[in-house]
Amino acid sequence: MSFLYSIHDRIIQLEDFVKILENKIQIRLAKDCLNKIKRSEKFLESLLKRNVLLYGINTGYGPLATTHIPLKDAKELQKNLIYHLATGVGEVFNPIHTKALMLARIICLSKGYSAIKSSSLQLLIDFFNLEILPLVPRLGTVGASGDLTPLAHMTLALMGESNVIYKNKVVPAQKIIKQNKLKPIELGPKEGLALVNGTSVMTGIAAVNGVYSERALDLAISLSLLYAEIMEAKEEAFDSHIGNLKPHPGIKEVLERFNLHKKDSLRFRKRKTIHSNDKISFENELLQDAYSIRCIPQILGAIKDTIKVHNETVTIELNSVTDNPIFISEENLVLHGGNFQGHSIALTSDNLYNAVTNLAIHSERIIARITDSKLNNGLPAFLQQNQTGLQSGFMGAQVTATALLAWIRTNAIPSSIQSISTNANNQDVVSMGTISALKTSECIDRVFEILAIEAMILTQAFELKNGFQKASGFSKHSIKLAKEIRKYSAFLINDRSLSKEINTISQKMKSGLLHK
């Protein structure tokens, strides 16, 4: 059952943002926001009465801003803005990204610096609350004047001039507006510009990316513990002194969580103390474990630090005013600037892509080692002990993990360095922030699929090590995780198609429903 979340003039955290999206929580504007919006609206009215020159309100757009537009044509100017920008192509955004871009735009406009009418913003809120989702093509924005093209498609739906998804059906927006006793938006002098001019699409997607990447990392820490227990890792690599002597916050946090979960485990080995006069064979006795085991705190810790920086950056952007021009009514000030520029999101999204790619690399290396009978601490090849050879176990799943990592690497070139001058050289430096955020979203989907394969394989290895028996020595945390995986994927006795199970587990992981 949904409940109301009041948007105040305060910082909205990414966790709350995604919680609203996932739980279908309805939103409303608090009184402080409404008052600021109305003051901004009246300020614009006073400026227009004095014929103050304002970009995009009584001028043309971009390189056409030298043309003065009389006030009698203001509504047509705003309509034409939406029409000429609604040129997106390709697949439409998925529902959570559509909701994210709508909510991000609502938050931006709620700050009261956009000179949008409160009634127009309320219609966008009504669409969000009723889950009337505009069909917004994913391609067509360069992230310079914000996300002009996709936000124009959103606005076109508010005008009742396109299709929407409503109750899982594609229907004309006009029909649904009438059905819900709403009125299509009538674009006033700043309405179109306020709705399309900003970074809300890239920011909404990046906000979701931030929360999903945290979920992926939490799972990776738990899976790494299970992996270390299966491999009977040497304990000293996880000594707290390791983090104290290399005190990156992420390393220390990963170590603390890892050690908290492993505290009741009996599967870690202590290093043998050897004296010079002892006659001991060192054959097959490595002093240290492979890097995928020994460097868990350092690898996952660095990823955690990058996710933290990403989420701090996105939180700032989500709670920012990204319009142009900006109306500061309390100071009688109008500012023409570049807050719509998406470089902050572009750069941090590219960095997040690199971080979660490393999460995928670590996961794939775990999968490779645990399925290799020469390296996996005495387990059968591909974890198949029933007629091995006739049965191939997780051989195919391992190949899929390799293919998924190859996909991630193939698409890893940064988007933020792809600036191409456009708009008659007016937008001569562009961010490509939405492309970066969207690519990172797709990368995170692949990461969850690799983690799902890892989880299935490690759970199989756990059972082959008799993990559910009390004498096995596995931590309670790992036993709980294995039991959770078993709800969606049974022990592999004979070969079967694992595709559906991989998809189910990856979706459970992404939604946060799987045990951490």
Primary descriptors:
two-stranded parallel sheet, 6% strand, Fumarase C, Chain A, domain 2, Fumarase C, Chain B, domain 1, 516 residues, mainly alpha
Task: Walk me through this protein's architecture.
With 516 residues, the chain is mainly alpha-helical. It has two domains: 4-198, Fumarase/aspartase (N-terminal domain) (Fumarase C, Chain B, domain 1); 207-271 and 286-511, Up-down Bundle (Fumarase C, Chain A, domain 2), CATH 1.20.200.10. It is 52% helix and 6% strand. It has 18 helices and nine strands. The protein has helices spanning 14-22, 31-49, 74-85, 95-109, 118-129, 148-158, 173-179, 191-196, 200-230, 240-245, 249-262, 291-294, 296-318, 343-370, 395-410, 433-464, 476-486, 499-511, and strands at residues 4-7, 26-29, 89-92, 133-134, 137-139, 163-166, 169-172, 326-328, 333-335. The strands form four sheets. Strands 4-6-7 form a three-stranded antiparallel β-sheet. The protein has a two-stranded parallel ribbon with strand order 1-2. Helix 3 crosses helix 6 (148-158) and helix 16 (433-464) crosses helix 17 (476-486). The protein starts with a strand and ends in a 5-residue tail after the last helix. The model has no long low-confidence stretch (mean pLDDT 94).
